[in-house]
Design a protein that fits this description.
The chain has nine helices and seven strands, in the order E-H-E-H-E-H-E-H-H-E-H-E-H-H-H-E. It has helices at about 20-30, 40-55, 70-80, 105, 110-135, 160-180, 195-200, 205-215, 225-235; strands spanning about 10, 35-40, 60, 85-90, 140-145, 185-190, 245-250. The radius of gyration is 18 Å and the shape is globular. The N and C termini lie far apart (about 40 Å). The structure holds nicotinamide-adenine-dinucleotide (NAD) and ligand 0WE. The site of ligand 0WE has 15 residues, from helix 7.
């Protein structure tokens, strides 16, 4: 099904084959999209270049989202090869590790708060600003990844929850700002998945087990499932959807009281 054929899409956040961004790239490639990628630091360059090749792409650029110059240069290099851009997939987040372990009120610092919000939320509008001209008038689409911790408190997610709340508000304000020129902005709120970003988190395995047991589908979701929803949201099949947060979490967010009858 080539429902993304002719679409040019930029994906940020591939770090390993387990990355949610990799699941999205695979699904979009399968749907016929032309892809470009970024890497955060030189040590990821060769790895991301290899992944890009496997999805028939030779477009791989550096972009640490804390650096305005790298964001500007990304779109200027992209525009040397592409006359337009149909999608940006923002699949990245960061908070200092020590703020993702312990009582939120004990462990939160001004610096960690600022870092988490800058990398995980501000970067979405920064990318949209610099990519705007390339995307305008093409019914383009921006997509980001969120988590239920934006709305509910849960152990250890801490300042990342605030950053995801900001990110989801960013999606709504950006959809209002970019809607008039035809650009849609959405988020997927994914259930927990074992990726590199999850590997460093204390008791993540326990959380995955608990989550699977308490979810309507009785299992955790996969990067393939997130990828398929992402491909849909960035396609013309989703042309009426903007400002939305779509849950790909096996139904977890819709329940309370867990699974008493099991
Ligand atoms: P991952 O470790 O594979 O990806 C995180 C990416 O963020 C990496 O590619 C890393 O290079 C990038 N990154 C961090 N700081 C950056 C910076 N300053 N500039 C550019 N890139 C930077 O982990 P993942 O789980 O695939 O995370 C992708 C997104 O999915 C994140 O927004 C995360 O919050 C979200 N998410 C993850 C889960 C989960 O359980 N894994 C669930 C819901 C949402
Ligand atoms: O958004 C995330 C994780 C994002 C993340 C992960 C790290 C680990 C390494 C942001 N910053 C860092 N910083 C590091 O130094 N998720 C949705 C996955 C996740 O992380 C958790 C979770 C879940 C789910 C942390 C605590 C509790 C639950």
């Amino acid at each position: 099904m080539n429902f993304l054929s002719g679409k040019k899409i930029l994906i940020l956040g591939v770090a390993s084959k387990l990355s949610i961004a990799s699941g999205i790239a695979a699904a979009m490639h399968k749907a016929g999209a032309e892809l470009a990628f970024t890497y955060q630091s030189e040590k990821l360059k060769d790895r991301v270049t290899g992944f890009a090749e496997s999805w028939d792409s030779n477009k791989v650029y550096p972009c640490d989202v804390t650096d305005d110059k790298q964001i500007s240069e990304l779109f200027s290099k992209l525009s040397d090869h592409w006359d337009g851009l149909d999608g940006i997939v923002h699949c990245l987040a960061f908070a200092p590790a020590h703020e993702l372990n312990g009582n939120y009120v004990d462990v939160t610092t001004r610096e960690g708060f600022i870092t988490a919000h800058e990398i995980s939320s501000y970067s979405l509008v920064a990318l949209a600003q610099k990519g705007r001209d390339l995307m305008a008038g093409r019914n383009g689409s921006l997509l980001t990844l969120s988590y239920l911790g934006a709305l509910r408190s849960l152990p250890n997610y801490n300042v990342m929850g605030l950053a995801k709340a900001s990110l989801e508000a960013n999606v709504r304000y950006m959809s209002a700002g970019l809607g008039p020129e035809g650009t849609r902005v959405n988020a997927i709120s994914a259930g927990p998945i074992k990726t590199l970003a999850a590997a460093g988190i204390k008791s993540f395995r326990k959380m995955l087990e608990h989550n699977a047991k308490q979810t309507p589908l009785r299992r955790n979701v996969t990067i393939e499932e997130v990828g398929n929803a992402a491909a849909f949201l960035c396609s013309d099949l989703a042309s009426g959807i903007t400002g939305e947060v779509l849950y790909v979490d096996g139904g977890f967010n819709t329940t309370a009281m867990g699974t008493l009858n099991d």
